[in-house]
Amino acid sequence: YCDVSITLTDDQNRQCDDETIMCVPCVLNPNPDMDRRRRYELRDLPDGHFDSFSFALHEMRILTMEEGQAKYGPKFKNHAYMVAFHIYAIESNRGEQAHFGAHFIPFHSAFTAMYETIVLTITEANGLPLESTPYWWAFNDTYQRDVVGPDMFGTLPGLGPNFEVTDGVFANWTIPFYNESYPQFIGAVVDPDDSSYTGDDYGYLRQSINNIKQPYYVAFPMSADANRSSQWEAQSLDELAHCISCGYHSEDYNMFHFAWCIQEKWHVYVHSDLGGWRYNEDGSGVTYSGDFNGQQGNIAPIFIPFHNTVDMFGTEWMSQHADQAHSSWGFPYENAYNYYTDSTYHGINAMDDINSAFPIRWMDLGWAEPGDPDANNTVTYLEAVCKLAKENAPYMYVKFSSGPDDAPGEIVEPRNSTATNSTTSIMEAGMEMQPLETERESMLPAAEAFLFAYDAKTDNRMEAAQAFLDSLEEGN
Hints:
By secondary structure, the protein is mainly alpha-helical. It is built from twelve helices and six strands. It has helices spanning 49-62, 65-72, 79-90, 104-125, 178-189, 237-245, 255-275, 303-320, 381-387, 422-428, 439-449, 461-473; strands spanning 37-39, 277-279, 286-289, 337-338, 343-344, 395-397. Helix 7 (255-275) runs antiparallel to helix 8 (303-320) and helix 11 packs across helix 12 (461-473). Mean pLDDT is 85; it is low at 418-462.
């Protein structure tokens, strides 16, 4: 398992050596007395915290960028923004900015930390109890139907007529539109030279080759020929445990090799199994992948707790080799290598900005407040590697109560809590969750903005949108 079977040339993934490339050492634990936020496993969350978490995600989905920032300030980003962020990282003309190399670890650590900043901005403004975003122990040593089922993230595969996820807290979760998002933020953020992505064939912020036309979150069975009754079974912990157990070696097992191991032996399978696949209607091949499976993976709300677990294991491996912090655990400073495309390119080296076409700023991670001199500093991969290391991050992972003895995380005493029932808190804050029965009505403004559905021969755009939704329900 420690033999990644990838042979790099001397000019690929060039690490710092303080001779030809100067190292920027990472100082661990500079503030040992820091009171860290606690990231709990989903099933260990204190009372009311999951409701607060889901409420914040609904706010992100419902509000436009303008509405959200007027309500919550400049740290707010809406759901469409976050989906676009992930897609444009993958669709970059320079090369993949999020996966298939050492950059996989810091990219997702920073991305989930940005989610956490937004979520806590929303919950704190509404007086709702939540300490941090949760993680998900997505392994087969624990029962998973309480997570992937009607009580939390919905039954997978979806129960709708076209495998839409129709139960759970995020039932009938709507898909953002490219044409609606472009004037809000894409046009102002993305350099057209960096990416040619303009949405999928139906105008959604989905994978450009995906042919799903349903306007809701879709989860297919695990394989293209599986039937609806096939149930997802979690991956074994054994595969990932081997990745963690491998010792550091500057040439043969550094952050690049660990990232390969955790991605290829666990991460990719959870995405593909939970997202699922379908064949073309003419049987010509697979071009339907579920929303959790592909470039638009964070359409699915379960993306956040799942990738918090990626961060937990990534930073655990780094902590086990803390003596390598001076060399950034072998993170490439030059000629960073993508093992999937067998190429090196600019944009994923240590000093490069994370997803520079869609940059993360210090205030997005809580490293600065709006108006501070450093607020708009862009975050590099190297900064994320160091500042989000286990010893430095503003959060900590609480050991899962139902996990194995050697599971990562800390055993902590419960905090004193004065939290009220979350539903009561939401109502007292003057907020009201969108009833699922009215979800179709909430789709009308988005569908109305969907130019593909607009009949140019009529001035009644709402009528065209209504007809479009009718056609989807009829299976057209």
